[in-house]
Amino acid sequence: MSYAKYLPARPQGWRRGVWPMFCLLLLASILLSIILGPMTLPAKQSLLSIIDQFLGSELSQLNAFQTAIIWELRWPRTLLALFIGALLALCGAVTQGLFRNPLADPGIIGVSSGAGLGAAIAIVLLPASLSYLTTPVAAFLGGLITTLLVYRLAQSQNGGTSVLILLLAGVAIAAFSGAIIGFMTYIANDMALRELTLWGMGTLNGANSTSIWLSAMTCLCLLVFYQIQAPALNAFLLGEAEARHLGIHVEKLKLQLIVVTAIGVGIAVSATGIIGFISLVVPHLVRMTMGPDHRLLLPLSALTGAVLLLMADIGARVLLAPAELPVGLVTALIGAPFFAFLLIQQRKRLSTL
Amino acid sequence: MLTIENLLIQQEHRQILNLPIASLVSGEFIAVLGPNGAGKSSLIKAICGEWPASQGQIYLHGNSLEHWNRELLAKHLGVLPQASQLSFPFKAQEVVAIGSTPLSLSLREINYAVQKWMQATDTWQFADRLYTSLSGGERQRVQLARVLLQLSQAERAPLLLLDEPTSAQDLGQQHQLLNLVKSLCQENGFAVISILHDVNQASRYADKVWLLKQGELVAQGSPLQVLQPETVMKIWGYQPELFFNSQGQQILV
């Protein structure tokens, strides 16, 4: 008999306070992201500057140089971090639901690698003038093909998905795309090489209005779409047959979720490169505290993902200032031990597979 | 309400199930019995559409199952699987609430219905515990509560399919569960097809018995007609002894 039987399911009385708490956290991290960096800006004046920007007032006493830092560098980067963080966390939560497996993360099962491969091919082989269009599309296609492939591979006889196959498929796909990306680096010209290298490390440096708008729109669409599907996703967790008996068009739902998630991962990867572990860690944290109900899990994951990636990016800028770490490195530093922790926790269950 | 015609299920050219004709009316409790591998679970899977039939038709309330709208069918056809693979930490009552997916209920109505069905299945006392921490029998009863909630908005008599509902239950719970199902038949007009293993339970609760062997329906009728010692010997290869209890009902041991 396990002692877990006697523990309360999860902390009670959180639900009411959770939204204001998260919104406050979000606002606080946005402000931090504006004032922190190689050059620290005064908090109050920065806040005023933001207010100025939106209300057209002139309260802030920052000089032109400081204002430029905020609006040319930090603000776009902050926005990109928010949207990409939310996008990654959302896609992670849905992938885990789709595979009915809490370890199925787009990064681990190889979807991100597939999207990365698509993006790398587009950067090197397709004309640079069209890259704002071709890179996301190629990343989406790479992600889509990989998800379909992995899903087919991991489908087991009894209608579930096999964790072992999922993880091994991830290893295989990561190795394969690693090799092709290496080859792309080899044949790339100087321009493409530069872009490829920067992008490959997973960085929010490349924030521009195109990538911000694209990720913001995708994030919004995915939030709405997933939220509509949330009850069906809950039923899906019971098992495919059970979901079908509950009146859900299972095949259609699966296909929709796979395509939409591949779009999400594709857009995220094309904008910032592969930023790992946000999609794994965030849904887990939310599930642990709020439970696995997708109606709550999805929006909260988006919020938490936004905050976490922003925090990681602040870390990336501050830790070695004035030099700057790629944010993918920071998230991996936090995420990889967390993944190991999950493995230890589930060791018993996994070793029987 | 349910009519099965010429149902044939084959897998890799092996015949799994062959059912020329069978039917049941609302309020009827059918016990499906037979040795292992007789096609009992296949029958359940065929009726709920999980396994496509090679040929044949199944009609529910006069309409072929293929022509039923998915959402509407969900309100009228509930399936309790033998085991469920849910591995996410839902609370027991959240699992039951998922049963409201095809229904149009307000949050308050859902909460009320969840409590009602969890009390009926004797699971309300662990409504707040995690489903993943429950025992096999407790999980099965939580799933039953979910299925009953799913059927609670049926416009016509619903059909409930139970795949070994008593397999993980203790003796008391087995009878409590079968009593509940029986009363749903008698009071709410449910039609029930349930796989059972115990011939005496079938005699006590079922209106009719379908006896399967090697994918064929070898006998159907009232428990008293079908479940005779010589039939048991023929089907299971075990010769039972016949007793009578104080009410004169027969018991096979």
Question: Briefly, what is this?
Answer:
The complex is a heterodimer of chains A (about 350) and B (about 250). Chain A is mostly helical and about 350 residues long. Chain A has 14 helices and no strands.
Strand content of chain A: under 5%
How much helicity do the residues of chain A have?
over 70%
Report the total helices of chain B.
9
Instruction: Label the CATH architecture of the largest domain in chain B.
Output: 3-Layer(aba) Sandwich
* Class of secondary structure makeup of chain B: alpha/beta
Order of helices and strands of chain B: EEEHEEHEHHHEHEHEEHHEE
Largest interface: A-B, 31 and 32 residues
Any descriptors?
heterodimer; A: 353 residues; mainly alpha; disordered N terminus; B: 253 residues; alpha/beta; Rossmann fold; 4-stranded antiparallel sheet
What can you tell me about this protein's structure?
The complex is a heterodimer of chains A (353) and B (253). Chain A is mostly helical and 353 residues long. Chain A is 75% helix and 0% strand. Chain A has helices at residues 15-35, 43-55, 64-98, 111-125, 131-154, 163-187, 190-200, 209-237, 240-245, 250-272, 278-290, 294-318, 327-345, 347-351. In chain A, helix 11 packs across helix 12 (294-318). Residues 1-9 of chain A have low confidence and may be disordered. By secondary structure, chain B is an alpha/beta fold. Helix content of chain B is 35%, strand content 26%. Chain B has helices spanning 40-47, 70-76, 92-98, 107-120, 136-150, 171-188, 199-205, 223-226, 229-236, and strands at 2-11, 14-24, 29-33, 55-60, 63-64, 77-80, 159-162, 191-195, 208-213, 216-221, 242-244, 250-252. In chain B, strands 6-7-8-3-9-10 form a six-stranded mixed beta sheet, sandwiched between helices. A four-stranded antiparallel beta sheet of chain B has the order 2-1-4-5, with helices on one face. In chain B, strands 11-12 form a two-stranded antiparallel sheet. In chain B, strand 1 (2-11) and strand 2 (14-24) form a beta hairpin. The two termini of chain B are 34 Å apart. The model of chain B has no long low-confidence stretch (mean pLDDT 90). The interface between A and B is medium-sized, with 31 and 32 residues.
